[in-house]
Amino acid sequence: MDQASTVAAGRQAGLRFACTLDGNGGCRYLDWDGVRAWRPGDGVLWVHLERDDPHAQNWLNEECDVDPVSRRALLAEESRPRVEDVHNALLVVLRGVNLGADDDPEDINAERDLVPIHIWVEETRLITLRDKGHHLIALSDIRDALAQKRGPNTSGGLLVKIAEKLVKYAEPIIDDLEEQVEHLEDHLTKLDPEAMRGSLSEIRHAAIELRRYLAPQREALIHIQVEEVTWLTRKNRTHLRECADKVQRFIESLDTIRGRATLLHEDLSAVTSEKIAKSSHRLSILAALILPPSLLAGVFGANLGGIPGSQAPWALLVLCLVILVLIPIELWVLKRLKWF
């Protein structure tokens, strides 16, 4: 099937794409008719569906020989990463980076989140489901590898490759959060406090949300390793262990990021308090300087008889000179008292 036919097949209702692995790193693309005509002897089948599309749901419920409980789990909106062993097959729910249609895969600042991918895998078949509007760049990478005859040859290898790619594209998000924290640390006293508080809040929220899904994802990857399915090789299990270890490092990094963000927030509060204290101190000094001249001005400005110099034309000049002499004396006294 040529490339145009491949794209057309991928656009059929509910079917993102389908193919059979040729055992040499490549594949042969299928449409709905090809999927329905597939038999285990034709090679490992990979079907990628839109979970919330009625056509995909009908095929899974009526034409696919997956047990009812597993079908309901595959179509469920519940998306916490987990693994279930079902008669030498695995029901797997993982999370991967959702890449928008206009996003550059290398742009770590793109707006992204972790979205679910539901997987049913057995020795000769693998079914993946994701929601409409989600684009998992991890699966696109695997399709490109198959097109170049550098892809997996078995269902176990395909499952491992999906797990590796999902982990790979989560890493830039962690790195981006670390860079944001480092930037805020370097510019603690230069950035606007309100904007910085907002950035720290977003970083902490992102770290908590990512950890919320990555922690069970690690447990799911570990669980796959110990499942006694015959088609998962020792090499597959080794690669899955490496994926789980990498996710564990992500979790540790997220804990560090959250801790650093919390400390930064405390430092920001301390810096803000210090600025307020300095401003209050300056106001106190200013009030201390102004108080005696204000007292003199108040006394001589009283509308009472007997005010000295009330009839003298030079009285105002004398009062101004007294105030000018008084201010340096006050400054000297305040300095001796170590107010500044």
Structure description:
The chain is an alpha+beta fold. It has a domain at 1-167: CorA soluble domain-like (Beta Polymerase, domain 2, 2-Layer Sandwich). It is 58% helix and 13% strand. The chain has ten helices and seven strands. It has a seven-stranded mixed sheet, with helices on both faces. A hairpin with a 2-residue loop joins β6 and β7 (125-130). α5 packs across α6, α7 (171-186) packs parallel to α9 and α8 packs antiparallel against α9. It is rod-shaped and about 120 Å long. Mean pLDDT is 84; it is low at 1-10 and 101-111.
Cα(first) to Cα(last) distance is 84 Å
Structural class: alpha+beta
User: What percentage of amino acids are in beta strands?
Assistant: 5-15%
Radius of gyration: 35 Å
